[in-house]
Amino acid sequence: MSKLSREDVLKLAALSKLKLSDDEIERLRDELSEILDYVNLLDSVAVSGLEPTYQVSGLRNVYREDAPKDYGYKIQDLLKNAPDIQDGQFKVKRVL
Amino acid sequence: MDGWPVIQKIADDVKSGRLKAADLVNKSLKAIDGNKDFNAIILTLEDRALARAAEIDKNPSGRLAGVPFIAKDNFLTLGGKTTAASNILRPFEAPYQATAIERLEAEGAICVAKANLDAFAHGSSTENSDWFVTKNPHDKTRVPGGSSGGSAAAVMLNMAPFALGTDTGGSVRLPASFVGAVGVKPTYGRVSRSGVVAMASSTDVIGPITRTAEEAALVLDVMAGKDELDSTTIEKTGSLSDTSFDFSGKKIGIVKEYMQEGLEPGVKSVIEASIDKIKQAGAEVSDVSLPSLPLALAVYYIVCPAEVSSNLSRYDGQRYGYSAAEARDLDESYELSRQQGFGAEAKRRIMIGTYVLSSGYYDAYYKKAQTVRTKIIHEFTDAFSKYDLLIGPTSPTVAFKIGEKTADPLKMYLNDIMTVAANMSGNPAISVPAGLSDGLPVGLQMIAPMGADGPMLAAAKAFEELSK
């Protein structure tokens, strides 16, 4: 395939919520193109009649009671890694 | 530094009072301190480990009483940070422990330190760590393999009798092969991943790294079983550590696709000598072809980044982990935190994953890869209707030089060419030391039918006996 354009890489970065430097963009254009070239070898593989496999455990619909359960976690422990908290809640930067 | 008695003996001696857990923890800490130049360890959990040892010495019990171990730093543990060797998790202190760690502790084991890895387990050399590069205990100029390179090196440097790794595409087996240890990738779902930093959830498994198969079987047996915190876990129906195995009369298939081009001559001759021993032990050995196995790596490099891009979306700089202070609004906070916190490999995988999952490309890449995955599974199922065990090398090469492959991501990916198929299919597989090529370890890989972890570990033990 042809090399990914700068616009392609920027679109992927936006979807991925990643800011990239100009150097990173140029490097990723090459690297992503090379990796996609490699995986394109699957194009020629015949798979008619086969279904995709998304998981291999064979388990289906593992249910549990929809009820709260106490695992002994403390709220202050769960919040201690947050960059900013207020009144026992995560505080984020302005949205708009 | 002195080696360790086998785990079973350590636990017995602690229970009978001949050994003290506190002395074992100190022995472990001393070995860690004396081998700092190998960069195997990110941090020790000294205070917590010594406190636990003191408790255990008061009333020693459990199948792993007083046995020190080292966890790859993508297992959540108390008593110190959990970083996954990534900058974005550098400040992270886990609020709870992984189920695997809890189960080991419940049997008396003591987590002493956290081992280096490729950041987020993305890699096969431990060179992608945001901390430092781990060196191979056999040759400091070479990599230990990865991504569980710190865990594998730690075992060979006698830092602990066992270490934990994770294997998403070969990350336990490859480093085990490169350092001369036993590394187990159990059946998918065997061990709960709750509390382990997620990479590719449809293939991630947890496995022990040890010096012998018998020890690995004990550790795996302690960790195995259903866990309500990981709904993919499977029920343990019997012990995984008390199976016996005799090669006599067993049907063993040599995977033809793994013995072909690209295999280093030195590796090939060690594997061929191993096959001869297995034949002499009375096994019926023949070549078997699984023609789609060489496609497994391409399947993996679509499926794995797809799942990585999803799993890494939780690192957004808001609830935990690195957060860019200068961001002015929420969107910028996401983008800058991720730009500054993720390394080059994580970014590559996020971008590839986003590409193959994006509308217009999903069918051509993601769905196609998952369909080829079905083909690989069918070939394994077919092979295991005729064979008890499949064998081949773990890696086409011995440990390579530090820096040799870092400039070319694709070349690095190819290290996993012989390990990824078992991840895509879910089958258990193990790397067992088979000998040396120019002084460097070579691993023999065994792949077993789904759920046959016990017989596979017993076969690995039987193979060790043949090599004595």
Task: Describe this protein with a few key phrases.
heterodimer, A: 96 residues, mainly alpha, Histone, subunit A, two-stranded antiparallel ribbon, B: 468 residues, alpha/beta, Amidase signature (AS) enzymes, 11-stranded mixed β-sheet, 15 helices
What does this structure look like?
The complex is a heterodimer of chains A (96) and B (468). Chain A has 96 residues and is mainly α. Chain A has a domain at 6-44: Histone, subunit A. Chain A is 34% helix and 4% strand. Chain A has a two-stranded antiparallel sheet. In chain A, a hairpin with a 2-residue loop joins β1 and β2 (89-90). The longest helix of chain A has 18 residues, at 22-39. The radius of gyration of chain A is 23 Å and the shape is flat. Chain B is α/β, with parallel strands linked by helices and 468 residues long. Chain B has a domain at 7-223: Amidase signature (AS) enzymes (Alpha-Beta Complex), CATH 3.90.1300. Chain B has helices at 7-16, 21-34, 46-58, 99-106, 149-156, 173-179, 213-223, 265-280, 296-311, 330-341, 344-357, 363-384, 409-413, 420-425, 453-467; strands at residues 41-44, 68-72, 110-115, 162-167, 182-185, 205-210, 251-255, 284-288, 389-393, 429-437, 440-447. Chain B has an 11-stranded mixed sheet with strand order 1-3-2-4-6-5-10-11-9-7-8, with helices on both faces. The longest helix of chain B has 22 residues, at 363-384. The two termini of chain B are 23 Å apart. The model of chain B has no long low-confidence stretch (mean pLDDT 97).
Summarize it.
The complex is a heterodimer of chains A (96) and B (468). Chain A has 96 residues and is mainly alpha-helical.
SSE topology sketch:
The complex is a heterodimer of chains A (96) and B (468).
Chain A: H1 6-15, H2 22-39, H3 75-79, E1 85-86, E2 89-90
Antiparallel strand pairs in A: 1-2
Chain B: H1 7-16, H2 21-34, E1 41-44, H3 46-58, E2 68-72, H4 99-106, E3 110-115, H5 149-156, E4 162-167, H6 173-179, E5 182-185, E6 205-210, H7 213-223, E7 251-255, H8 265-280, E8 284-288, H9 296-311, H10 330-341, H11 344-357, H12 363-384, E9 389-393, H13 409-413, H14 420-425, E10 429-437, E11 440-447, H15 453-467
Parallel strand pairs in B: 2-3, 2-4, 7-8, 7-9
Antiparallel strand pairs in B: 1-3, 4-6, 5-6, 5-10, 9-11, 10-11
Helix pairs in contact in B: 2-3, 7-15, 9-11, 9-12
